Amino acid sequence: MDFPARPQQPARLPAGLVEVLGASPVYVGSNAQTYLLELESEQAVRDLRPDLLHLLDLPVKAVIVTASSAAPDYDFVSRFFAPAIGIPEDPLTGSAHCYLAPYWASRLGKTALSACQASARGGALRLAGERVMLGGQAVTVMAGELNLNQNT
User: In which domain, by residue range, is 17 found?
Assistant: First the structure.
């Protein structure tokens, strides 16, 4: 899939977000009301148990947490929380990687990145210029056929 890159800028942490997440970030960035937080380790990202109900009380549309990967197969790991838009935790989020790809490309000095969203599913991505090219495994959950009547 081909998406636009969404660079973020360093930002202040919204009041209450550390308590809601249960973790203190080493970096905070934002693009509108989407926050990107880097944690100190992959294990901190995996162990995160945010209070999603109280996340709704904050002026935050979505929270992306990330850290460099401890495994050689991936450059970084992430998780995505957006209860304000009806997504408590998304298992694999294309839009989150629009923020993550330029962030990690800049941090690591790379244009080809491998990522793992720390959920039951994972995915790979690469950054190409102003675009984020995403690829990974997918599961077909529905198939159908649409017939249009040309005589109406």
Answer: 2-136
The size of the chain, in residues, is 152
Specify the number of domains making up the chain. 1
What does the angle CA 43 – CA 108 – CA 25 come to, to the nearest 5 degrees? 40
Q: Which of 34-43, 69-78, 112-121, 130-139 has the lowest mean pLDDT?
A: 130-139
Could you tell me if 111 and 127 are in contact, meaning their C-beta atoms sit under 8 angstroms apart? Answer: yes
DSSP of 109-134? T-SS--EEESSSS-EEEEEETTEEEE
Give me the residues paired with residue 117 across strands.
Answer: 78
Q: Is residue 24 part of a domain?
A: yes
- Name the pairing type of β-strands 9-10 and 27-31: antiparallel
Examine residue 143 and state whether it is found in any structural domain, yes or no.
no
* pLDDT category of residue 134 using cuts at 50, 70 and 90: confident
Q: What is the pTM of this model?
A: 0.85
